[in-house]
Amino acid sequence: MAHSEHDHLEALARANASVAAAAEDAASDYLRPQYHLTTPAYWINDPNGPVYYRGRYHMFFQHNPYGSEWGNMSWGHAVSEDLVHWEHLPIALAPNPDSYDSDGVFSGCCVVEDDIARIFYTGVWPEVQCVAESDDELLRTWQKSDRNPVIRERPREDLEGFRDPYLWRQGNEWRMAIGSGIKEEGGTVLLYGSNNLYDWEYLHPLTTGFGWNWECPNFFALDDTHVLLVSPHDEVVYTTGAYRDDRFEQGTWRKVDLGGKDNFYAPNTLTEADGRVLMWGWITGGGSEGAPWNGVLTLPREVGLHPTGELSWSPARELNALRGKERRFVSGPLRPGQPMRLDGIDTDSCELLIGATVGAERAITIRIADDLDSEIHIDLGYDRRDASVFFDTTRDTLEIGKDEEVTFRIFLDRSVAECYVNDRRCITRRIRPTSRGSLGVSIAAPGGEIGLSDCRCWDIGSIW
Ligand code: FRU
User: How confident is the model at residue 345 (pLDDT cuts 50, 70, 90)?
Assistant: First the structure.
């Protein structure tokens, strides 16, 4: 065994032991989400390299195995047969002492060719692009390539970052997008080409735009339209446009999630064989004081094209498998001043489905609180008066057809809320219940009578 491989195995063993020792403590925190994918303990950030390999979904993620803050960047690993129940596997990649990735194994992607899975990641510092390979059934063991780093020089000197490789197959060749920024110009994605995955040639910027540096680019097709997602050290945005001859024409930039950078960042996607695109993002933040965990990943979202030209987002259909006990609440007219309480929700991990016809000049407000009689609550909803979706203090415009229903799917998982409105807006937010199991929900019609067409809640248990 090569010296470096031995060092890697030692680093992995140490990291796995550290995480295992904190897992019980992390699991006992009442704020710890139950059905969101996360580490057994300690820090998680970006989802990395989602891939489907020999009948299973694999998710990797940026992980600090030694604490609840960012650091010691490694690739944690989990596997799933159904996209919603996950099992933790040992950490896949850790920094090798005294090498090109000794300061961290940063974000990247995973591609499969000839039944071999290859992770592309950024080793630091300086930022260099690297490969690790695996072909074992569960992708448990990874060998860092002898040819690393496969890209060791930056293509030009006036760059900011140089990280987070994202690959796709293009005809008989491969393309790699790297997140960066050009000084005096703005955030950019650098495009590389290769025909063997190891020798890479720099082509040109795929596109350049606002901000100073873009992280975690993802570039994929939905029918004939190409989508570019970037994380610009601020809220995550996307643009759509045509891609031809290695050139991309960017269009309008739009938000991916209304929760803002502190609630949703660095998403990564998986394009399946049938063209379905799934996306996961990183939700920041820890639980109770001293509890050894920080962060979870969002639920998988299906990304589509909406007739308006925007992207649509819906919870992956597999998530319906998580639905447990169902409660149906009365539907019918809801009048101002007479909010409806959804009694008997005795869980803090559930899905709510609420559909309503909200006529002109009307609004629907859904209140979530530990105790509905207290002053502490979050209101979310839709207001026809200014065509806006709101969640607490966040607001965004959403034009909904005059006769179209407003539909909310709200996933509450202890201290995490994910809300989908008409599959066109997503809002991810951390929430802070004050004790286990407490959840009050009520629905109100502050602007005049509305019609509730559907109101259901499903308990969701732990996926672990
Ligand atoms: C995004 C990011 C990436 C980087 C990784 C390091 O959150 O900063 O650009 O590769 O996190 O953990």
Answer: confident
